[in-house]
Design goal:
single chain, 612 residues, alpha/beta, Rossmann fold, 6-stranded mixed sheet, elongated
């Protein structure tokens, strides 16, 4: 249900009542899960009898705790308002059941099937995911699961051996699928080749209709019956694929083909029985009515397959442009659950906080955090509420660095567009090229787009009698063609786009800068004296050296303010960086020497002379 609400919000489908109804259902069933969880916590030993049920209860607890912290899912407000006692009870009961489940995994090296001592990685997979999700949402330490990873790797090699030797009675595609998805999450680096080989084998055993052959038969409830449905195998492959995409890793074509065939199977097997609609296991054909568990798995598979396709589309678009990708950090390993357990997540804007701030009050980082970062990190679908900014200022004042810092703190790619991206077909082909570029931008989600040095496309259109007919026509053509596309991109609210320019706002076309085209404007100028001193304070130099630099800066500032316009250069952050580094390596340098160096740099721009 949480996945369903997220998809409704992202795709803007369905009606507001539908979204509210889905949220209402989640609130209603949460109390039932809560009761089951408390019963399991009262007798933690019961987790060993049915580890699969325990895993689902812990997962439910993690998702409900995560949902309780969501400020809003989408408009209208569909956030959850459980009281603190309810959430605290989820945390305490979930911690007991998760600990009991972890003990079970440690005893057997994996999860055991209900009522048996047989390890099967369909149980291990769900149990590890449950504990990981619960630890993430409660800020508990990350479990490494090293012993399980070793055992899972051995099982994969054994299954591949059975397959290679033609021992079909011992080969189990379901076990191999879940083991493969599990190993990919636990050991993504060193086991990549093995994971690829195993995934290829799972895909190769799939039938043309999208189903998989029956795996090993296990005793459950005193009788033999097949356990894992084809939909569950496809679900494991979908999770594996999303994890790969989250790490920007390659995905075997065979896996994508298998997911496509599984989608065909899902489409062909949808059932309606009275008021019930859904799916039932392809292992129990005697059941006419749709099953709740299988239906929930199929819906989870569909959501993940949809996410896979969206990510592939985005990858293909980004491959056409200059892109700086975010640094991937070791965080929550189950990428398909990341938003459910981590949004809104605790956030520290490390890159934005370290931006050189030229303003006198030093509020740049706080403003960027408040208007651009916090709104994204406090929503379920991580979508900007304000997504556009014009940044003006002289060259070298940090306009590009600002865009890069925002992208880094959002964890989004930074796509940079320059005039050659629009002029690759020449001026005559500008309209067609611009249409293609903006069509690509509208297909993106969660990307920072920087229009760098593109001011020529947005300059004021010549209207004076002295302007030639060609100038007026071309200027009007270019600007008029860009404006509606920018407006559409802003309305879409899926990317944060920044127009960085060295010219003043007054030189841009009035239609570009009027209210409603961009959310904010920002002037990045050379740093105010207060900002210069703040930069020195953050240098890490001794107080004595800092005071010496500040004295020089104040002396120069007085001279700068009293000099005729244009006769003195302002102090830039580049100048400050040079002075700080010089002082770091020449701590005993006198104030007069430092003052002379500062004056020389500002009167002689550019690198120093090789020959004096």
């Amino acid at each position: 249900m949480l996945d369903w609400v997220r998809v409704l919000g992202e795709e803007e489908v369905g009606t507001d009542p539908q979204r509210l109804e889905a949220s209402t259902v989640i609130r209603q069933i949460s109390s039932r899960f809560h009761d089951w969880l408390r019963e399991a916590a009262a007798e933690p030993a019961s987790a060993e009898d049915d580890q699969l049920l325990a895993a689902h209860l812990v997962t439910a607890a993690a998702l409900l705790i995560g949902a309780s912290r969501i400020q809003r899912l989408d408009e209208p407000d569909t956030g959850f308002s459980w009281d603190d006692d309810f959430v605290e009870s989820l945390v305490e009961s979930g911690r007991i059941v998760a600990a009991a489940l972890e003990e079970c995994l440690g005893k057997s090296g994996g999860g055991c099937l209900p009522g048996t001592q047989q390890v099967h990685d369909v149980v291990t997979f769900h149990a590890v995911r449950a504990i990981d999700a619960f630890n993430a949402v409660t800020n508990a330490p990350v479990h490494e699961w090293q012993e399980i990873a070793v055992r899972v790797e051995d099982d994969i090699l054994r299954q591949l051996g059975f397959r290679g030797a033609g021992l079909t009675s011992r080969f189990d595609p379901a076990s191999l699928a879940f083991s493969t998805a599990l190993l990919d999450a636990l050991d993504p680096g060193s086991s990549r080749t093995l994971v690829d080989s195993a995934a290829d084998v799972v895909a190769a055993t799939q039938g043309p209709d999208g189903s998989w052959p029956t795996g090993r038969v296990v005793p459950v409830g005193g009788r033999g019956m097949p356990l894992v449905a084809s939909y569950e195998i496809a679900y494991a492959l979908a999770v594996l694929t999303r994890n790969r995409q989250g790490r920007n890793a390659e995905i075997p074509d065979s896996v994508l083909d298998a997911l496509r065939r599984a989608f065909d199977l899902v489409t062909a097997t949808f059932k309606t029985d009275g008021t019930a609609r859904g799916w039932n296991s392809d292992r129990v054909p005697w059941s006419a009515a749709p099953e709740g568990w299988i239906t929930s798995l199929v819906l989870g598979l569909l959501v993940r397959y949809r996410d896979v396709l969206v990510a592939i589309s985005q990858r293909d678009v980004l491959a056409k442009y200059s892109v700086e990708r975010p640094t991937m950090t070791a965080s929550f390993r189950w990428y398909d659950l990341r938003r459910a357990v981590g949004s809104p997540r605790p956030h520290l804007s490390r890159s934005v906080a370290t931006l050189p701030d030229p303003t006198a009050r030093g509020t740049l980082a706080a403003s960027l955090e408040r208007e651009f970062l916090t709104p994204v990190h406090s929503t379920w679908i991580e979508r900007p509420s304000r997504g556009s900014l014009i940044v003006t200022g002289p060259a070298g004042t940090g306009k590009t660095s600002l865009a890069s810092a925002l992208a880094a703190d959002l964890g989004w790619p930074l796509l940079t567009l320059t005039p050659p991206d629009f002029l690759k077909r020449g001026l005559e082909g500008l309209e067609a090229t611009a249409a293609e570029v903006f069509r690509d931008l509208l297909a993106l989600r969660r990307v920072v787009v920087l229009f760098d040095e593109c001011e020529e496309f947005f300059k004021a259109r010549p209207t004076t009698a002295s302007s030639s007919f060609g100038q007026r026509t071309m200027g009007a053509f270019i600007t008029a063609g860009m404006l509606p596309r920018l407006q559409q991109l802003r309305r879409k609210r899926w990317v944060l786009f920044i127009l960085a320019t060295n010219i003043a706002l007054t030189e841009l076309d009035p239609a570009v800068v009027r209210r409603g085209r961009f959310d904010y404007q920002l002037r990045l100028d050379t740093p105010h004296l207060t900002a210069q001193e703040r930069y020195v304070d953050a240098s890490g130099l001794s107080r004595r050296v800092q005071d010496r630099i500040k004295t020089c800066l104040r002396t120069y500032d007085e001279e700068y303010r009293s000099a005729p316009d244009g006769t003195r250069a302002p102090v830039s952050f580049g100048t400050l960086a040079h002075i700080v580094e010089r002082s770091r390596h020449s701590r005993n340098e006198g104030t007069d020497d430092l003052q002379r160096e500062l004056n020389y740099m500002l009167r002689n721009p550019g690198p120093p002379q090789l020959v004096q």
